Amino acid sequence: MRDAAVAVEAVPLEPDLDELLDLDRHRLAVVPKKKPTGSERWMKYLGFPGGILVFLALYFLPTPAGLTASGQAVIASFGLALVWWVTEPIPTYLTSLTLMASLVFLNGWEEKKVLGVLGLDVIWLNVMAFVLSSILVKTNLAKRIALKLIIRFGKNAYTILLAFVLLQLCLAPLIPATAARTVMTLPIMMVVAAIFGASNENPTNFGRNLFLQNLLGINIFSAGFITGSTANLIAAGFIETMGGEKVYYSDWMLANLPVVLASMAIAWLVGPAFLFPLKAEDKTPRITGGIEALQRQLDRMGRMTFAEKKAAVVFGLVIFLWVTDRFHLGWFGFEVSAVMAAMVGGIICFLPKIGILQWNEADIPWHLMLFSAGAYAGGLALEQSGAGQWAVNLVFGWFNIGKDVNFLSVYVIVIAFMLLSHIVFTSKTMRTILMIPIIIMMAKQLGIRPMALALPAAFTIDWVISLPINAKPNVILFSTGQYSVLDNVKFGLFMSLVGVALLTVAGLTWFRFLGITP
Amino acid sequence: MMKRCADAVVGCNSPAGKVMFHIRRGKAPPPSPGKQLPPFLRVLWLWVLIVGGPVFGQLTLGTLGNGATVSGPPPSARIASFAERVDLLPDGTASVTVQATFLAGSEPVDVITLPMRFVASVTQRLAWVGSPAPEVSGDPLLETRSGVPLLKVRARQFAPGRSVALAFSYAVKGFFRPEKAATAKFGNLKMQWEMLNVGPVPITEYQAVVRLPPGFLVNRIISYLPAAAPGDEDVGGPVGLIIDQGVHALTLKGHELSTGATVMAQFEIKSAAKPWSLLVGLLVVAVLYLVFFRDLVSSQAEPKSP
């Protein structure tokens, strides 16, 4: 075992710390070049022809009863995209563009509608959210918040883990992109792990707890806020357009944030105690002066700059507008939607002289916008062509689900299926677009209020925690080598079951109290 | 609302010109008296009619207890079922077979009027399917009144409450133009099937099966009426798609269609033939990918997993 002195000697902390905390090195607009593993290369190699074969099979089979020709074209195009999104023989945004082109060429969905998807409010909200997150990076406000939290709570293993829980909780409503949050907090995690003696050469249970709890926090705190991820907004959009009920920011937060906090509390308690029990030496920092190094970093940042204060005010304004959405009509005489609130923030950010950001400094990952647009086009085309309805009827036919099924049974099945389906699907957006419309239609068929099933189902979207391939944060965190795939599966499956249990209990109590479930 | 015609005025119309269901309704009003009564007696007579009538009615009904409410309103005539089978032929003709069950109300019927979609100028070969029901006489007659087509069937009077099954067929030439598929966008042919109940009586159950020409299928449902509301059992609306004896068909359903109610589906049909060049082209692309991208998996050392 290395002692503290050796570690300090081997790892000159502060220069690395400067480098690690340089968030400009992780621009989201730049598509990262990732070297695929052996299995990934095989997936790419076979995924391309595999997708084509799936497409051909679905498109050239005789059209079954109940399905229109356009519906069949949409299913075939979506099947192709699904295989390519999962196996990634071409970048995900390119698959989305292929899907959009295929929908038009095969007469699956009208060209105007396909192209119009890029103008949907979800896309606009994403653009504006990335503008807002850019001012956090540029002004170093995120770095300051993170450092302060660690210095304030990082006295021992439990408190430092709790500090990260709080850090992720603070960042989740501010930055919708989980990858951005991961990138911003990863350097802090790595430093703290080193301080507690965990490295990729010497993984410890502290490191496992730290990184896996952050993985959980980054992902599921997004479920606490409607703006926490694009998928949440898409789900809310489906509930409004197909289910006929609007989901407000405050509705979502009030309902699901307590569930998410309870889940994190369980992970925080159970993780270090049972899943990855901490040894005595894991519980205290192994590098004397580690916290002080962070303090020096914070001191070097000096007092809060004017730009940081402006960024805080802009964020505060946007969050205020998001949280108070249901009161806008009374206050202003008009409603400021989530996207328009973000746009107000974006406008202020770019204003000459009083603004914070130049256009070139805005870190907007347009490839993610195109990926989202393609996924959204595919999902909407599935719905509007009647193919989704046809699929639901097919499932009903297989499982013989009828109106005599009670709500609780359907609820538990839907929650468990939705939450555990993340193991198969690698995209939250895709999972949302596939499942939420089907759940809404299923609720209608069973005579259940769509919101009662679809909203709790939407709360499971961000539970992507069981495998490194499930989400971008998982990939980034796994790349640190602090834990194995098996560690991830063990932690992820345990917490997934906890999530199902908590959402079931909430469905019978808290959601019922709020009027969501009957 | 249907306006009933007075007795013995066969063929009379409501102001809307759509009343075709003729019912004999008892006697005509009594002729006016030849001698005028004095004014005060006329006023008294009127007062007796206005006040005395209801009082007498109240007294007599009162003595009968709740008899009036127990018996309820007299049953009204209706079309219990109206099923259309439409065969779209490759030459653009729609061959329609209708099976309807007419249920008489409390009054005798001499003419049954059914809603019709097509005017006489395009309808051909209108005839009974099989032997006509014994309750009807003659052939079904297609009439157009104020631009509204209606089918009239002369009935031998049958007792109130009885039903009669009617089955007839007709053809509509030029219902669609198949040659337009060659120039239409994606080869789609837009068409519409509609039941607008222009008849005087409600239709309890309506169903249409529109069988497409062999080799065609429904590309898209453009719109339909009535729209499905959230919570409806039939979330897909009144339209369904089936395969009937190997032929793609669209079904349309309606319930309780009162006069003026509509069930409609607007849809596109297209040839079911798929472009085989697409199949071949994509297979070639897949093979080329396997050839030119084989370096992805060949002869490279396995990179270390993160």
Mean pLDDT score of chain B:
75
**Main beta sheet strand tally, sense and closure of chain B:** 7 strands, mixed
Spatial order of the strands in the main sheet of chain B? 4-7-2-1-9-12-11
Q: What oligomerization state is this entry in?
A: heterodimer
What percentage of amino acids of chain B are in beta strands? 35-45%
Q: Helices and strands of chain A, in N-to-C order?
A: HHHHHHHHHHHHHHHHHHHHHHHHH
What Rg of chain B, in angstroms, do the CA atoms define?
A: 30 Å
Strand residue content of chain A: under 5%
SS class of chain A: mainly alpha
| SS elements, strand count of chain B | 13
Shape of chain B: elongated
- The overall pLDDT of chain A, averaged over residues, is 83
Describe this structure in words.
The complex is a heterodimer of chains A (518) and B (306). Chain A has 518 residues and is mostly helical. In chain A, 69% of the residues lie in helices and 0% in strands. The longest helix of chain A has 27 residues, at 249-275. Chain A starts with a helix and ends with a helix. Chain B has three helices and 13 strands, in the order H-H-E-E-E-E-E-E-E-E-E-E-E-E-E-H. Chain B has a seven-stranded mixed beta sheet with strand order 4-7-2-1-9-12-11, with no helix packed on it. Chain B is of the alpha+beta class. Chain B is 15% helix and 37% strand. Chain B has helices spanning 39-63, 67-71, 276-292, and strands at 78-88, 94-103, 111-115, 123-128, 136-145, 148-155, 163-172, 189-196, 203-211, 216-225, 239-244, 247-257, 262-271. Chains A and B meet through helix 3 and helix 21 of A and strand 10, strand 11 and helix 3 of B.
